[in-house]
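seq as requested:
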Amino acid sequence: MPFIAREEPFVCENCQTFVEPLGKGSYRNHCPACLFSKHVDAEGPGDRASVCKGLMKPVSLDFRSNKGWMIIHVCNVCFKKIPNKTAPDDNIVKFSDPSSVY
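struct tokens:
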């Protein structure tokens, strides 16, 4: 499935933050404040064909030499696990802060 580029603003369904697109050839698919995402794609990035539509909880960070830091999201409905590239303004300190509760 080809990548479908989408630069769309959205309101985070977890924390209600208004999220602006990154622009400049980068694509945001999660909230920079709480790091939650939404299960909207089925076969490939940007297809918006998922019937699930569950919130995706950030569960861990992973470093990949070809992509950099990735947030690992797990869907709260169907439990699908999806890695997503971090953005420069992501609040990734939530992973090291024991007081952060998801």
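The mean pLDDT is 82.
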